[in-house]
Amino acid sequence: MQEDDRALLFGVFNEIAIIDQLGRAQLEATLPKGLIAAHFTVLNHLMRVADGRTPVELARAFQLPKTSVTHTVGALAKRGLVDVRPNPNDRRSKCVWLTDAGRKLRNDTITAMAPDFAALVAAIDPQKLLGILPVLRELRAFMDHRRNAEPPRDRPLDATGTAPSG
Amino acid sequence: MQEDDRALLFGVFNEIAIIDQLGRAQLEATLPKGLIAAHFTVLNHLMRVADGRTPVELARAFQLPKTSVTHTVGALAKRGLVDVRPNPNDRRSKCVWLTDAGRKLRNDTITAMAPDFAALVAAIDPQKLLGILPVLRELRAFMDHRRNAEPPRDRPLDATGTAPSG
DNA sequence: ACTAAATAGTACGAAACCGTACTAAATACA
DNA sequence: TGTATTTAGTACGGTTTCGTACTATTTAGT
Question: Which nucleotide's C1' is closest to B93 (Cα)?
């Protein structure tokens, strides 16, 4: 483990943090007032993957505490962008379904961002982006896996600290 | 602008968002209780770049609203990790200086993360990371530049919406 | 079947984050 | 020099985020 590697990793994480920041800002600039990236992320996931996910599934997908997801889903429900219904297979649980309004909002947002995307693709060769994607996936997979295979340290997947035990 | 490109961009931003999430979680797991990534980021920046930055310079560096930085710096000051002193060149302004405790905390944190870093470098060829870094920089630079060159939309650099005017 | 452990979700409170509105100081420019 | 604009920072309030603690249900182990 060289000093160089350390600088490299800091560099990578630093760029990633700022890109995330800028991407979120840009997304939120196109969302209707009152909605933020967290809300869109849920709508988008429900559409890309599938309707009817449970809040815990969402929390796992985004690596967020389930209390945060509850809050976000609640906000979406209050705006009529999703429906939260009981899970027929598990009476503890619920399922989150998109409404027509939710689907429309997601699609409209993507449409509205098209020029941004086009500008980006015009400025940066998509081949380059395509090239980094596998490395990003590998990096994500490693960190994700390591998180689940780690020692005692508190782990925020389940906020109660119950998770590690088994 | 192809459908494929859209999926590609979504993929890239999605991975970036989750890597950021996981990286933050890992960093916070090694920080002393009560300190979060935002705090460390400031300490690290002051040490990597230079002491004596003003809050606004920090806000620009991290692409965050200045009110957020005020809050973060205030917390660091209360813990004695930085000193906030008047800016001799500008009586509106202040400068943020590291204390010995602040420097020590930053260094200790990096030391504590060394095994994590080593594991990452062992699992993922550093050459790959080195390879994506320029693309990440390019992506960041593009988004950053575009943000500053953009139309009317509210821009969260200065939260007052004063910024665009000139 | 019965008990213990794990899991899904919520309530609650604290901290972070950020937009608006303000004050004070510096800068632009006429 | 004098006035208008820009800039640095703060006060304040609302929302997000998240850790802790709790209830209800399911799953595992005997």
Answer: D8
Domain segments of chain B as ranges: 3-148
Is there a contact between B1 and A114 if contact means CB atoms under 8 Å apart? yes
Locate A70 and state its tokens: 């509850």
CA distance B138 to chain A (A): 8
Q: Find the Å distance, CA of residue A95 to C1' of nucleotide C9.
A: 11
- Residue B86's contacts (CB-CB under 8 Å, 6 or more residues apart) are B93, B94, B95
pLDDT in tens, B54-84: 999 999 999 999 999 999 999 999 999 999 9
Q: Which fold has domain A3-112?
A: Arc Repressor Mutant, subunit A (1.10.10)
What's the pLDDT tens digit per position in A6-50?
A: 889 989 999 999 999 999 999 999 999 999 999 999 999 999 999
Q: Chains A and B: how many Cβ contacts under 8 Å?
A: 168
Per the listing, tokens 């905390």 go with B105
Closest CA to B21 of A63, A134, A25: A63
Q: Using a CB–CB cutoff of 8 Å, tell me whether A85 touches chain B.
A: no
- Fold adopted by B3-148: Arc Repressor Mutant, subunit A (1.10.10)
Q: pTM for the complete prediction? A: 0.87
